[in-house]
Design a protein that fits this description.
362 residues; binds flavin mononucleotide; 11 helices; 8-stranded parallel β-barrel
Length: 362
Amino acid sequence: MPLLSPSSLYGLARPFLFGFDPEHAHEITLDGLARTQNTPLACAYSSARTDDPVQLAGLTFPNRVGLAAGLDKNARCIDAFAAMGFGFVEVGTVTPKAQPGNPKPRMFRLPQRDALINRLGFNNEGLDAFLANVQKARFRKGGPSAGSTRSPMLLGLNIGKNAATPIERAVDDYLACLDGVYAHADYVTINISSPNTANLRTLQSDEALDALLGAVAERRETLAARHAKRAPLFVKIAPDLDEAQVAVIAATLKRHGMDGVIATNTTLARDAVKGLPHAEEAGGLSGAPVREASNRVVSQLRAALGAGFPIVGVGGILSGADAKAKIAAGADVVQIYTGLIYRGPGLVREAAQALLRDRSKA
Ligand SMILES: Cc1cc2nc3c(=O)[nH]c(=O)nc-3n(C[C@H](O)[C@H](O)[C@H](O)COP(=O)(O)O)c2cc1C
């Protein structure tokens, strides 16, 4: 390993970043990535992308490790994440209008458990600013991170609803976002599982999900004809669901022709962090403590959906072994968020290489 590899540099940067309040550290990092992407300074976090292509939902994923939504809500740093070696990057959640999110503080570290709690509440600059940033990204245009003859990195655009939109009108927000992002997305994620927007998770229940997915599927037909491309639709669900709820969701996804499912978002459960500082903060818990519940939902989805239905596994991946466990539970590809905060960009290659080696053994 070179002396100044991305992981050793992150080892130096992490104590500095962890000296700040978590949201401030996040802003410093994203500002740094936005400023340095597509410049020679990007070598501080760049890593050769592992070549391990997999076909899923009609797309070729260049490898099986993606960035989970929420880290780059405004799509400012797509090229920086492309340079880290991700096979796919999901940005958002975007809402139709800009909104400030919940009052601060609203993000907390639980370092004893490699975990975070957040109640950001979809703070974002809104659809227009998001799309302007997406269109500025150069990763598709043969920039330094674009593989020349290899499959390009894929871009997922994750959509949600504004806090001020009543839940009965949620469908309008999803359709407005779908209209906006469709032409620019390799896939679109319908996020109905953030715990930080009042009542959002009720959209996972039978009738509400049926109505939402019916409307989204119908609009996709119009958009597919208009843009002469069929963008896959993924639905992102919570870990706080029992087996019967997972089975109903699985059947509803299939009935409406959804192309994949992302499991899971953060959890409301606190048993794994009881007694730790910040454990009782309201919001979604991510990182190591959500791993078991996420893996359980992934296996239940696989059992309910059968082989061949795309599952993106996310929740608690902090090592190559965790990524392998997620695939073993039934996921086709994986995503990481909290692991990147605790382990740095070296985790992207570690996970992608672990999955590559795992596959070559199979
Ligand atoms: C600070 C923070 C913000 C997040 N924001 C979003 C979001 O806007 N949209 C979304 O779909 N998921 C969001 N998530 C959930 C992550 O994408 C992921 O599903 C979850 O954190 C579990 O993965 P992890 O354990 O690797 O972090 C967020 C997670 C964190 C920690």
